[in-house]
Amino acid sequence: MKQTRSYIQRMSMIGLSILSTMTAFTQHTAQSYKGTIGKTLNDSKEWWVRVTKAPQGAPNVVLVLLDDVGFGASEAFGGLIRTPITDSLANNGLKYTNFHTCAICAPTRAALLTGRNSSFVHEAGFSHIGLSAGYPGWDGRIPSSAGTIAEILRDNGYNTFAVGKYGLTPDEEATDAGPFDRWPSGKGFEHFFGFLGSETDQYKPDLVEDNAHVQPDGRHLNEQITDKAIAYIERQQKSAPGKPFFLYYAPGATHAPHQVSRYWSDQYKGRFSEGWDVYREKVFENQQRLGVIPANARLPERNPHIPAWNTLDADHKKLYERFFEVYAGYLTYTDAEIGRLVHYLKDRNLLDNTIVYLIIGDNGASKEGTREGSLEHTLRYTAKTEEEQFKNNLTQIDSIGTASVFTNYPLGWAQAANTPFREWKQDADAEGGTHNPLVIFYPKKIKAKGDIRTQYGHVTDILPTTLELTGIQKPDHIKGIRQDSIQGTSLAYSIYDKEAASQHKVQYYYIFGSRSIYADGWKAAAAHRPGITDFTFLNGKKIEDQSFDADEWHLYNLNEDPTEVNDLAKKYPEKLASLKKLFDEQAKANYLYPLIDWYDVINGRIHHPNGSHSPGPIK
Question: Could you give the CA distance from residue 22 to residue 354 in angstroms, rounded to a whole number?
Answer without folding.
Answer: 36
